[in-house]
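Notes to self after the Tuesday call (sharing in case useful).
The group wants a holo model before anyone commits to mutagenesis around the pocket. I volunteered. Ligand is nicotinamide-adenine-dinucleotide. Logging inputs and output together so the record is complete.
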Amino acid sequence: MEEFAGKVAVVTGGAGGIGSATATLLAQRGATVVVADLDPEAGERMAAELTATTPGTAEYRHLDVTDGREIGSLADTLVSAHGRVDWLFNNAGIVENSPTLELSQTVWDRTIAVNLTGAFLCAREFGRVMAAAGGGVIVNVSSIAGLKVVHPEIHVAYDVSKAGVAQLTRTLAVEWAPLNIRVNAVAPGYTRTPILDAVGRTDPAIVADWVGQTPQQRLMEPADIAAVVCFLFSDAASALAGHVLAADGGYMVY
Ligand code: NAD
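Result:
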């Protein structure tokens, strides 16, 4: 289980649902994990717990993925502290439901800034230090909502941001293959985390609707997504570049 020993992995949004499950699995496999998040309380708690209970180590670093300067400075700090950054899990994200005729530009701008511009800025700044070190792996987070129109919830800014992340993944995979940086994405289906509360998880009828649209007849768990992400980081996925891999219980093909 310690096959990731010696790897330095940054997890943006690492204090939240899918991010924290992934940080946990990475540390359980021996990696040095950087929990990079806006939330210091949850991030510090998570890092201390992982360091105490796993073969790996973890540290919390404050990060707002919309702030290019903060990201660049974190990348440089981590290179000074650890020598390099091997892996980036580009995971921080937000969502707000709104019928499009009522969608404010503020919500649109905020959603694109965190989900799409944030993914670009993190890829650029951590890609820079990976390129200088001879390579790395990036796993972005798209969504089923970036690949088809989901329902009954309505959140066009989120959908467009996640479609953008899918194309960012393909483009960077091609551009950075010569730099030995492998770029792929996971596209989670409906996954049991706090973000899902914002789009309807508190309503049993909506959850039943989502489950009914999913061939496996369930919500995904954060650990399901973490396992796919760790596969994409691992050498077992060395032939994969530019994939947007749906981890969705069959939702996309139903
Ligand atoms: P979550 O709300 O549990 O976690 C999100 C984390 O991101 C939180 O810890 C939050 O503090 C952090 N974050 C938010 N804005 C940030 C910023 N500007 N800078 C740094 N960190 C920030 O949600 P989650 O379900 O774990 O979502 C993780 C990713 O998975 C998101 O990109 C989300 O869009 C995507 N996703 C989730 C689902 C799902 O059903 N849960 C489905 C598809 C895609």
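Two things stood out.
Residues 12-13, 15-19, 37-39, 63-66, 91-95, 114, 118, 141, 143, 188, 190-191, 193-196 surround nicotinamide-adenine-dinucleotide (CB under 6 Å).
The chain has a mean pLDDT of 97.
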